[in-house]
Amino acid sequence: MRSHTHYLWFTTKQRQEIIDITDEVAAQVAKSGVQEGFVLVSAMHITASVFVNDHESGLWAVAPWDPKRYRHNETGEDNAAAHLRSLTIGHEVIVPITAAKLDFGPWQRVFYGEWDGQRRKRVIIKVLGEP
Amino acid sequence: MRSHTHYLWFTTKQRQEIIDITDEVAAQVAKSGVQEGFVLVSAMHITASVFVNDHESGLWAVAPWDPKRYRHNETGEDNAAAHLRSLTIGHEVIVPITAAKLDFGPWQRVFYGEWDGQRRKRVIIKVLGEP
Amino acid sequence: MRSHTHYLWFTTKQRQEIIDITDEVAAQVAKSGVQEGFVLVSAMHITASVFVNDHESGLWAVAPWDPKRYRHNETGEDNAAAHLRSLTIGHEVIVPITAAKLDFGPWQRVFYGEWDGQRRKRVIIKVLGEP
Question: Rounded CA gap, A50 and A43, in Å?
Answer without folding.
Answer: 6
